[in-house]
Amino acid sequence: MVVKMSVKESLLKALLEGETVSGTELADSLKVSRNAVWKAVDSLRKDGYTIQGQTNSGYKLTKASENLSKPQFEKYIKHNNLDIHVYDTIGSTNTSLKEWALKGKNEGTVIISQEQTEGRGRLGRRFLSPQSTGIYFSILLRPRFSAEHSLCITTAAAVAVSDAIEELSGEKAYIKWVNDIFVKDKKVCGILTEASIDFESGGLDYAVLGIGINVFEPDGGFGEELNNIAGAVFDKREDGIRQKICAKVIDNFFDIYENLPNNDYIVKYQNRSYLNNKEVKLSVGRETVSGVVVGVDDSARLMVKLENGELRAFNSGEASIIKRYNK
Ligand code: BTN
């Protein structure tokens, strides 16, 4: 699919490649007026880009903006068959992408937003998604494997996020089964996968994988309710890092997804298990059990040694830590 870029996007793409862009040449190549190019420059400056020069001398980007833009993502993301849509603000990237899925959009459609006003978490919770400090995105998938393997989308995403965090921040990332990422004992990322099953084929009609990462701490913190639980990947703000982390997660995820349901990646998940050796309370439907986590098995089930000594494997549930288990 060929998606036509706006004058602003074409200009930004050229500037991000480090070129000095001649306004006249760009106007000629896009078949637009020089005034249209000037307006695009003005609009990028208003978005926070520092651009030196004028139409005659050529434009040069001297400082990128923290604003998210499609050309920036296209520059950073290796997988080039994605259809990326970038928003300043949106209700929920998952909600919008589910609507698009029903309208027939293809696998690889991605919605990225700078802010969500109605960010959603698991179990009907809300996911705090403030402007400019986090990154919130959803990926549309049309998996070829059967619905019984659907959990691997979430676990693959958890590995993709942890790898990206470790590579870009140098901090160790842990996975709290089944889909929360922890850095320095604080939750820095949540994952919400929503899927629609095709009962005739036993496969998934679509899955929407939603990922929210607290890249920096919001001004004024996460709020009273979340301050003890939520954390950020980086202590200090760094230009462009939100775009890089998002791009890396998307690339890492598709590297794994292309081989699913092959589960070679699960070793990385198991090695990062945050709950190992911890005493937990686990709610599964109406049942609540407690015990000590002994690990995660190859099917991503949580292995818990219950208080009565029985070893049980859980493929779903909500785990909360009771206390640290001293061996
Ligand atoms: C959780 O921690 O319970 C899951 C949080 C998932 C948040 C992401 S942000 C992008 C996508 N859109 C949403 O509304 N939710 C997911």
Give the key terms.
alpha+beta, 327 residues, binds biotin, elongated
Named once each, the bound ligands are: biotin
Q: Main beta sheet: strand number and arrangement?
A: 7 strands, mixed
**Percent of sequence in beta strands:** 25-35%
Q: What do the pLDDT scores average to?
A: 92
Textual characterization of the structure:
There is one protein chain. The chain has eight helices and 14 strands. With 327 residues, the chain is an alpha+beta fold. It has a seven-stranded mixed sheet, with helices on both faces. It has a five-stranded antiparallel sheet with strand order 13-12-11-10-14, with no helix packed on it. A two-stranded antiparallel ribbon has the order 1-2. Strand 6 and strand 7 (180-183) form a beta hairpin. Helix 1 runs parallel beside helix 4 and helix 6 crosses helix 7 (241-257). The chain is elongated, with a radius of gyration of 22 Å. The mean pLDDT is 92. Biotin is lined by residues 92-94, 116, 119-122, 125, 127, 136-138, 180, 190-192, 210-212.
List the helices and strands and how they pair.
Layout: H1 7-16, H2 23-30, H3 34-46, E1 50-54, E2 58-63, H4 70-76, E3 83-87, H5 93-102, E4 109-113, E5 134-141, H6 151-169, E6 173-176, E7 180-183, E8 186-198, E9 203-214, H7 241-257, H8 266-271, E10 278-284, E11 287-296, E12 302-306, E13 311-314, E14 318-324
Parallel strand pairs: 3-4
Antiparallel strand pairs: 1-2, 4-5, 5-9, 6-7, 7-8, 8-9, 10-11, 10-14, 11-12, 12-13
The chain binds biotin.
Residues 92-94, 116, 119-122, 125, 127, 136-138, 180, 190-192, 210-212 line the site of biotin (BTN).
